[in-house]
Amino acid sequence: MACESEVLTVDSIACTGHGICAQLLPEWVRLDDWGYPIIRPGAVPATLLPQAKWAITNCPALALHLRKSG
Amino acid sequence: MPTALDFRTRPGAPPANFGTNGGTRPPAPAENGFRLLAHLPPGGGWTSLAEHRTRYPAPPAATSRPLTALIDEIERAGLRGRGGAGFPTATKMRSVASGRARPIVVANATEGEPASYKDKLLATVQPHLIIDGALYAAAAVGADQVLIGVDRTAPAAVAALRRALDERARVERSGVTVQVVETPPGYVSGEESALVHFLNGGAALPTASPPRPFERGVAKRPTLVNNVETLAHVAQIATRGATWFRSAGSPDEPGTMLVSVSGAVARAGVAEVALGTPLARIIEQACPTTPAAAALVGGFFGTWVPASGFSAPLSRAGLTPLGAAPGAGVLIVLPEGACGLAETAAVLRWYAAEGAGQCGPCAFGLPALAAEAAALAHGPVPAQGLGRLQRWGGEIEGRGACKHPDGAVRLLRSALRIFAADADAHLHRRPCRGSLGGRVIPVPGPRR
Ligand code: SF4
Ligand code: SF4
Question: Are B360 and A33 inside 8 Å of each other by CB?
Fold first, then answer.
């Protein structure tokens, strides 16, 4: 359990590019020139997890997911 | 219809035989060294099932129990998929065979790569070999159904496959239903998940993975999607054995491969070559019209290789140092004096038009990338130089639901590397003369 980490992913077919994720989680998500999210690869730091979950709940397209890895 | 070029492979001896004639030695392959393209009827005529059966025994009837010995033989042969990705065929078959429901086999002849003709050619001249291969694959994984997906804009291939099935319906029973399904043209319809989605009655668009088709595909059953050339090799391995298969090619990349050669050559067509044949030899045999400056290896989904790299063998290992891969076996020859940047821009425009428009980075990024590349090729050159092209490339990569945008980025990167001097000249002086003339690479127009 200790080594398990979570990666933030976007379903690029579902995403509608409204950029709410970048507003709610700027530490981990930025937008490309067309308004679609570029997510940092790798494990989301534990300190950011609550905020990541907040972004997931608020994504209008429900396109954001946390995937277990490691 | 493309023609078959005369290329030679090393001949070999046959032992293993999974066909219905059991221990009988099947006839040796044609003396000229062709394998898949051996015994072609003169002038593209018809090879009847009876004639085909004089060379290839009928595949065994499939049961729900996988024929694992055949999967083992395919593994020993070292066969990798010939559709582009080069995944080991036996590994794919094993995962499908281990699924819970009865599997389905999909033979993929959609050939979405615009510069590839080999699957259409093979389906036209050797439909029985493809169908045999699909039946062996069905026996291997324990499937009771085969769907052959073929591009509906390739009428000769569709007709040949249908005719071959009609012929069999009268004389052979395999316990497996085989059907031809005509698919819409274009790249994304050949993408594995898009093809499965289409066969399930949906649109021919990629789906966000998972589950992958080998877990849950057509009719929610484990689905083995194999390129038709791969299946033709399966039929030959099943009748002639792994050792025979390995008598051509190199130890880590055995066998032959069909290669579609086009561009500035007098004899454009499909060649069958042993893996490891130097690019120079393949290009030479297709008779370049002028000295070649570079080649787009792997086709629209490939990488530019300069003439200085033509001594490289056509194999994954041989092309890796050049950042290239054989892909689905495509070589497009660029003559000296042509503008590689303008050719690249034209192909990028095709990428932008061909995207399924489902993912933002693909739907918006690719048109922007294509427009910027066109500006570099034809002017007015972008004020930011190459900066924005490079940044966009890096940002678009890996962000589509399928690999479509990644292909565009890889092509662009190789163009900026191979034609760096040209890009510099375009930026600091003006577009070269080559960019003004017609294009060498025929880029298909918008889809019907
Ligand atoms: S909030 Fe959701 S829909 Fe909007 S850009 Fe982010 S991931 Fe896409
Ligand atoms: S990446 Fe492009 S082609 Fe692939 S699914 Fe998304 S929009 Fe379609």
Answer: no
Q: Looking at CA atoms only, how far is residue B148 from chain A in angstroms?
A: 27
Rounded Cα distance between B295 and B277, Å, is: 15
Assessment of whether the complete model's pTM goes beyond 0.90: no
B358-381 tens-digit pLDDT: 899 999 999 999 999 999 988 788
Q: What is the pLDDT of residues B73-110, one digit of tens each?
A: 999 999 999 998 889 999 999 999 998 899 999 999 99
Q: Is the CB of A60 under 6 A from ligand 1?
A: yes
Give the ligand 1 atom nearest the CA of A37: 5
Residue A68: count of CB within 10 angstroms of its CB:
8
Closest-approach residue (CA) in chain A for B361: A36
Q: DSSP string spanning B395-419?
A: HHTT-SSSSHHHHHHHHHHHHHHHT
Q: How confident is the model at residue B12 (pLDDT cuts 50, 70, 90)?
A: very low
B45: exposed, middle or buried (Cβ count in 10 Å: 0-12, 13-18, 19+): exposed
Distance CA A37, CA A29 (A): 6
Q: Which residues of A touch B (CB under 8 A)?
A: 11-17, 32-36, 38
**Spatial separation of the C-alpha atoms in residues B255 and B349, rounded to whole Å:** 35
Q: From the CA of B194, how many Å to the nearest CA of chain A?
A: 13
